[in-house]
Amino acid sequence: MRTIHRKGNYSLLFLILFVQINCFMPAEVFGYNTEDTRETNQIPLSWEVGFHKEKSQTPDRWYTATVPGAVQLDLLSTLENPDWHFADGYKQFIWMEDVFFTYRANFQKPVLSANQQLFFISKGIDYRFEIYLNGTLMLEQEGMFTHVEVNLTPLLKKDNELLVTIYPVPKSNQRHTDRSQADHSFKPAVSYGWDWHPRLVPSGIWDETCLEVRNADYIKEMDYSYELDQKLEAATIMVQGISSNQKGTARLEIYFNNNPVFEKESEVNNFSFSLSGNLEDIHPWWPYEMGNPDLYDFNFELISSDGIVVDHKSWKNGFRRVRLVENRGAIAPNELFPKSRNEPPFTLEINNVRIFAKGTNWVNPEVFPGILTRERYEELLELAKGMHFNLLRVWGGGIVNKESFFELCNEMGIMVWQEFPLACNNYPDDPSYLTVLKKEATSIVKRLHNNPCLVIWSGGNELFNSWSGMTDQSLALRWLNSICLEHSPGIPFIPTSPVMGVGHGHYIFYDKNKDEDVFQMMYRSHYTALTEFGMPSPSDPEIIHKIIPENEWFPPSPTEAWKAHHAYGAWVGETWLCTDILEKYFGKAQSLEQLIEWGQTLQSIGYKAIYESARQKWPYCSMALNWCFNEPWPTAANNSIIQYPALQKPCFEAIKQACRPVMASAVIPKFLWYKTEVLKINLVMINGSGETIPEGKMEVWVNGRPVDQWDYPEVQANRNVNGPAVEYQLLELKDQWINLELRIPGNNELNSDYKLLVR
Amino acid sequence: MRTIHRKGNYSLLFLILFVQINCFMPAEVFGYNTEDTRETNQIPLSWEVGFHKEKSQTPDRWYTATVPGAVQLDLLSTLENPDWHFADGYKQFIWMEDVFFTYRANFQKPVLSANQQLFFISKGIDYRFEIYLNGTLMLEQEGMFTHVEVNLTPLLKKDNELLVTIYPVPKSNQRHTDRSQADHSFKPAVSYGWDWHPRLVPSGIWDETCLEVRNADYIKEMDYSYELDQKLEAATIMVQGISSNQKGTARLEIYFNNNPVFEKESEVNNFSFSLSGNLEDIHPWWPYEMGNPDLYDFNFELISSDGIVVDHKSWKNGFRRVRLVENRGAIAPNELFPKSRNEPPFTLEINNVRIFAKGTNWVNPEVFPGILTRERYEELLELAKGMHFNLLRVWGGGIVNKESFFELCNEMGIMVWQEFPLACNNYPDDPSYLTVLKKEATSIVKRLHNNPCLVIWSGGNELFNSWSGMTDQSLALRWLNSICLEHSPGIPFIPTSPVMGVGHGHYIFYDKNKDEDVFQMMYRSHYTALTEFGMPSPSDPEIIHKIIPENEWFPPSPTEAWKAHHAYGAWVGETWLCTDILEKYFGKAQSLEQLIEWGQTLQSIGYKAIYESARQKWPYCSMALNWCFNEPWPTAANNSIIQYPALQKPCFEAIKQACRPVMASAVIPKFLWYKTEVLKINLVMINGSGETIPEGKMEVWVNGRPVDQWDYPEVQANRNVNGPAVEYQLLELKDQWINLELRIPGNNELNSDYKLLVR
Q1: What dihedral angle (degrees, nearest 10) is formed by the CA atoms of A435, A438, A441, A446?
Q2: What does the alpha-carbon distance between residue B614 and residue B493 come to, in Å, rounded to a whole number?
Q3: Residue B400, burial from CB neighbour count under 10 angstroms (0-12, 13-18, 19+)
Q4: Rounded distance, CA A114 to CA A152, Å?
Q5: Per-residue pLDDT reduced to its tens digit, A294-315
Q6: By the CB < 8 Å criterion, does B469 face chain A?
Q7: Using the beta-carbon criterion (under 8 Å), do A339 and B482 form an inter-chain contact?
């Protein structure tokens, strides 16, 4: 039992405030420079792991296991070539899908006082598993997101053996070795193979796991929620939960910038407690570039009848109001009878301010999520922020991330759209699937709903498209809506993306079936949001050199190595290398380096074009999220902006330019021009900031010569002003490239430039 | 306490099987020719009612009250002209909106044995009310759909006074005297005024109400549900609930055609019971014209430890499987990137068969729903069935009907789409509104979900349109979805109508803004379902004579009387009389009779055109429901097919023709032709039946002369076959009308004919 002074020693309290559920981890894992002086109540375990064909068997051999991690990584030494990133080396793991794995940890019974108990605790075991203590089955579970908590005390001996047996990877069918095998489980589908992810399905203990000594009196359940008034001035704070003791006191303190701002106590009554109160003068949590992502420190204590703090939880929380509201212009009455419905709302409104969401689709940063750390998340999130991204769509093919991901997004002011792990399949109305879905989704929603960064729940990816076949009537999606409503009514829920009015695609620079390039596509298209759009490029030479055998480097061809790394056969045409498209514009490449440079150039131009075009259409269009931000392993070619593990492609700088809050911008109807044509563009002043910008002058330059100018007026916050059309006779040009520049004299940071091809 | 032999005397059991909750009504109210030999445990009450300005007051005068009914009708004698249907007489009721009403019933304490209790029970009190016994407040409730059950026993005296005080009509604002005043309550919005309903808001006890003597042991709660297997062969039957006694036995028997087919017992355990079992060889419930609407008889008994049946419930139930599935052709891949989503599914599939739903929008058949009886429902439902209608959309502006409505639909095989009472308003995310909504909706869903006739739940009417402004994020609709999912997962839920791909309108024969008639609109339009389309006509002369002062009969003009009865000022143009449209086609009418004949002719032609055109587009279009079937009071002009109370308009016969399961049909591009033109039509053979029809010959006749023919092939069940185009030189015609006939020699019942104008 830990004893903490209840008053006075606030500094001590602060030391532990960052740890959401304090028992799990040493504080240094979170990377804070604080010293945790509490008595520890955790006991780490040493693990081994092995495989076996039948559940009843035991492994022939035990390998040292890293927890959290993945069984595949623990067995790396068994592979012919442990560098599984190279060529098609990932195929070496295939056999591991169909065997059982058992983890083993032996430990001695710790010293427990009379009223103490020993729990086995894990934040995630992937996917179906059983837990045994000294031969007795303690827990069976299907699902990697529901925390595990097993009281070991009654069966403890002096020397104990803890076993965790993991079932083979779930597969709903044996006909197809693809994502369809994931359509009856709550396991992320991506690892069953995707056009940018190898077929490699992780298994094992993938999040923090330890033994924990608990007092007889502890917090069995606790739920915190708040309601913020519409003016963002005051919040009603509510905490309720269950104690293991039928009496005692529950106590909540809240601090802002180290100052106590709230304190409330309530008696435990018949094992349950409930307290509420008002917090005034709220400092709202604002996303990055809109304000400060202010967080409050919460400390909740359970106090025994004799005044001892027997358990406590500490966390950070911010207060914000989020809604999805109708896009401006989307509710214009439909002119024709019969009339259908308005488009669904897709503009994010944060703290009563409508915003254009600039962002990206976040995918698993590792094939094996078990090795993800706060540091890995942090380096990637810094890169996202570096491009002015304010929204991450955490795509439904992947995992729900570990807690440090959300903590970082809260702190950095990056908004998160969280999908449940359903993607591109028809998840059935099957009772056993729905039972797992309800349990897992409830765990996820209850755990995450208080993160201020979380602004959208989504059922999953592309479920209402022909390749998936789910509908508004699918029970899985109705249950997810219902579970989010019950536990997280303050956060919008969408059944999937895209919904009506929202677009996914295109994923290439030029569509030969339509004879349409990305500028042309954007010029005609009219969407409330673009929540996926891709633009592939090859990876840097250094990466390709590491994953492709040297004799295959140039010219590239659809060998197993190039295909394994998504250069060929990933999707339509020659994706994702797109040599056909490069050849159309630039001719045949003479070296790998030239091919890569050309591909990366088109990627930069294409991404910049889409982000800017979407922003030009604000407020009707209110969101632009590229596909995709990162990648889980080194690829030969991919739509990613960030190469594995955290390396910028050149498009990083182009996107950063296209997402500046305030900027000059040009509406450009196409990429490829002929010298017999007149270049026609339109000017726009984009103000995505919260402040009015003064009137000024925008100059238009073509290949270094001034051709026109526009005296633009004052532009209000979060508004665009459309300027005049500008025309230019291309006959005069000598170059292969049109270098179009928009210059704002005296405000060079608002300048923009564009590269277009001319023949 | 009633004692029933538990075995052997099945005939006695059958006598009571029809009564869903046996205690409420004498069996003869349901119209069955059975004799109920049970001891009665109900005690009717004699009621008086009066009004007062403040809640604390008592009425100055008491009027005899009819229960169920409405306070307005009890106070008819206070009106200057009690014939409130005449002219604008409905305005006499306006003052009653803003006063309190109190019902009073005095009764003597009945003889109760030691373990008996006396309950006050009501199936509906409209809208907000308080119940007092001998001056003590027993219950407060907001909401007219949650049954009331009050144990009066503890406060009973020899002479008792029961008071029910009804609050003034709920109004969320005083600015507008219209439907917007209903936007914070769960009260049907229609009575606040609609383009076919007077502003007249009912109040009072509107459904069955009595005292009831209960044993100490009774069924406190009971829920029955089933799961039917996909092959429709076997059902899992589940009953669970709560007894007032912690011990005893629960017993369920099921009979089909008087033969026992299921029997199961289960012990009551700590006040709750739960039993389940399989029923084999299911005879599914089929809608009208698809098969038999077979029903099973259920008898549930609660049996005390000494073998006495202390309480029981009996009901009828049918087994069917219902889904909303994707319309054929609606999931074709969208050709253009960016891609959005598939249209939501809108084809009803009943017992694994996709159907075209032919039907109508059902509105309250009375301004005061309290006076609705089984007989009123029955005469209207027979008329619906007479037009081959298989689906009624019970529109969300009105009430959820009384139980006899659903019993009749079950028995007659008519499917019901039930909306919750939300319509054309923006119902808010307000916690107090949501609390009432959740309570009321849960009551409705738990009570109705087992009716086999019920095939769609809908959040309400036109909530995603610009005039309402709700969205997919509105908490009210998310809660309704969630409540339906929890208690009625087997029935599809849609948030509102129209959803994406579904159309509402048009409501006139000719749109002068578009210069488009109903044939032209249908020729171009492409919807998965048409769930509202109107075609107005004047009512019969006899009705108009009763509601319009004689000196205003002809020519009609926008007087208060004509406006009150929706002939003018109801909607756009001169609706619903549409003299402008009649004049366009026929010139100025010379008499009221001629005007009515013309209007009713256009209505017949227009409705026939829409039903047939929608059916021609099967399977992409899968539903056609006109606006509206009936009306709550006599109108001068309206879109209704059935005039108040239950009189056919001439369009009845035209619609009946257009909805025959099998028929010849013509695709007609427009209504008004010129003699310089060539009439061009296309032929279709429609087979909406479950059986293949053999090949045959279709002859095309124009004004009595054969002009073409088509040898049509065999047509499979639920399929159409498109035939050739037919052309005809109109120059030859001498008449004002084109009389187009399609004749099937030897199968005259499949013939069709059309009237088109020619100049």
Answers
A1: -130
A2: 23
A3: buried
A4: 15
A5: 999 999 999 999 999 999 999 9
A6: yes
A7: no
Task: Quote the ipTM score.
Answer: 0.94
Average the pLDDT over A575-590 and give the result.
98
Rounded to whole angstroms, the Cα distance separating B96 from A470 reads 51
Residue A31 falls in which region: left (phi positive, over 0), alpha (psi -120 to 50) or beta: left
Taking residue A652's Cβ as centre, other Cβ atoms within 10 Å add up to: 18
Work out the pLDDT band at A333, boundaries 50, 70, 90.
Answer: low
- For A:345-404, CB contacts with B below 8 A are 345
Q: Is A471 on the interface with B (CB under 8 A)?
A: yes
Structure tokens at B531: 């769930």
Do the Cβ atoms of A471 and B521 come within 8 Å? no
Q: Quick one: pLDDT at residue A332?
A: 67
Inter-chain Cβ pairs, chain A and chain B, closer than 8 A: 152
Query: What's the whole-number mean pLDDT along residues B485-512?
Result: 97
CB contact under 8 A, B506 and A472: no
Contact A338 B473 (CB under 8 A): no
CA-based nearest residue to B397, from B433, B424, B377, B416:
B424
pLDDT for B30 beyond 70: no
Domains and their CATH numbers in chain A:
10-29+217-322 (2.60.40.10), 42-214 (2.60.120.260), 343-658 (3.20.20.80), 662-758 (2.60.40.10)
Give chain A's mean pLDDT.
94
List of chain A residues whose C-beta atoms are within 8 Å of the C-beta of residue B324? 471, 473
Chain B contact present for A344, CB below 8 A: yes
Q: Which A positions 495-554 lie with beta carbon below 8 A of chain B?
A: 496, 498-507, 511, 514, 521, 525, 527, 530, 532-533
pLDDT higher than threshold 90 for residue A239:
yes
Q: Is the pLDDT of residue A22 over 60?
A: no
Q: DSSP states of A637-683 as a string?
A: EES-SEETTTEE-THHHHHHHHT-SEEEEEE---SEE-TTSEEEEEE
Give the per-residue pLDDT at A582: 98
Helices (H), A334-464: 374-386, 403-412, 431-448
The confidence score (pLDDT) of residue A334 equals 62
What the block records as the tokens of A634 is: 């080194």
Closest CA in chain A for residue B518: A337
pLDDT in tens, A147-198: 999 999 999 999 999 999 999 999 999 989 999 999 999 999 999 999 999 9
Strands A493-494 and A454-458, how do they pair?
parallel
The Cα A391–Cα A356 span in angstroms is 10
Enter the tokens of residue A145.
Answer: 């997101």
Q: Do B338 and A533 touch (CB under 8 A)?
A: yes
Q: Would the pTM count as exceeding 0.90?
A: yes
Q: Are residues A371 and A69 in contact, defined by beta-carbon separation less than 8 angstroms? A: yes
Q: What is the DSSP letter of A479?
A: H
Name residue A753's amino acid: D
Question: Does B345 sit within 8 Å of A473, measured CB to CB?
Answer: yes
Distances (CA, A) of A439 to A144, A146, A435, A479, A547: 11, 7, 6, 11, 40
Q: Let me know the angle formed at the C-alpha of A550 by A547 and A551, rounded to the nearest 5 degrees.
A: 130
Peptide bond between residue A576 and the one before it cis (omega within 30 degrees of 0): yes
- d(Cα A621, Cα A327) in Å, to the nearest integer? 7
> pLDDT per residue over A278-293, tens digit each?
999 999 999 999 999 9
Contacts of B464 in chain A (CB under 8 A): 341-342, 344
Contact between A239 and A25 under an 8 Å Cβ cutoff? The reply is no
Interface test with A, best of B468, B471, B493, B613 (most A CBs within 10 A): B471
